[in-house]
Design goal:
By secondary structure, this protein is mostly helical. It has 16 helices and 2 strands.
Length: about 325
Amino acid sequence: MERMAEMTAIGGRRQLSWVFYILPALIVYVAFMAFPVVNSMRLSFYTGTGFVLNNFIGFDNYAKLFNGSETSVRFLNAFKNNWIFFAVHMLVQNSLGLLFAVLISSRSFRGRNAYRAIIFIPATLSPLVTGYLWKLILNPQWGAVNLFLNAVGLENWALPWLGDPRTALISVSLVSSWQWVGLPTMMFLAGLERISGELFEAAEIDGARPSQVFARIKLPLILPIIGIVSILTFVGNFNAFDGIYALEGPDGQPLYSTDIMGTFFYRTGIAGQHPVGIPDMGLGAATATLTFLVLFAGVLLAGRLTQARDESSSPRSAK
């Protein structure tokens, strides 16, 4: 009996040994991720001066973001712009990433490794460096884009890309898509390369066209990766800041047309709205909390849709 009790105790200690392996990462996560999020939610119910928020005001900060005031107008405008920013990335960045991955994964495509490196290089650059570089390229007077358009006789297309409210947000979104297109390309490429070559051989024997192979073999098998890329794009776009800051500054110029949640939060909670320049940390915390809730709801919905699709396509559901 004593021997059995001793072996049981040893087995229990071994079962609990995994706790010590995850404890360092758990401490770092709680200290730098979970606690700031929870504390930001708490601060969103307070107001005060400077870094001292000691006046409890309930949901007043949230009401201020939706009550029709100038702050509310700026917040809703930033929220709308963020969705446009996200839509451009989904349509341009991820579509091009899928196209590049399909081309590079083809065995007959020459220089696959070279093109893979070229596509991924922009993602290794700092967003600030990329922003300042494209700010020079899109300069309306001597930028490379307008010089090229003038040289080929398209003077009417030579626009102030970053200075016109009608084109500024799309221009910024396209620059960001150009920089990060390498990430979805690599993820899609990894998924395509995991598909068994026997499926392609069977399709070739059956006389399937390349478009049919893509639609009926490649696309269905990489749908989970498309879901993951969509979630990562959603989270990354609603946390975006540095690229917009480098191209247009923190005020979302021109005329707040490039203002998104990240720049709005920076102005309200950290730098202070122009021209007063006094930050409202409680209002900034409310903005951060709403951004977190939007991200949480979006990721949860995407996860549910992906799970439902997987269950509907499983062999059990087919029976």
